[in-house]
Amino acid sequence: MKVLIWTVIVLIVVLWLVRGKKNKTRSQASTHAPQPDSLDEPQPMIQCAECGVHLPMAEALPGPAGTVFCSDEHRRLHASR
């Protein structure tokens, strides 16, 4: 009975140490993750001609006469008027 108790205690300690080591390597890997380059410079924000939502210029869809839209659906709705 004494051997069984010590075996269980040793297994618990080994599992605890292995888990601690895995968590440590995960936290180190997440702190060294590279940052995306797109966050370096702010992008100009523009307003959708249909709904008024502000969005980055890179994500806008061009429309007639220099208007911009947030989606193709809004571009079609605006053209139908």
TrEMBL record:
Residues 22-42 are annotated as: Disordered. InterPro entries: PP0621-like. It comes from the Bacteria. This is Preprotein translocase subunit YajC.
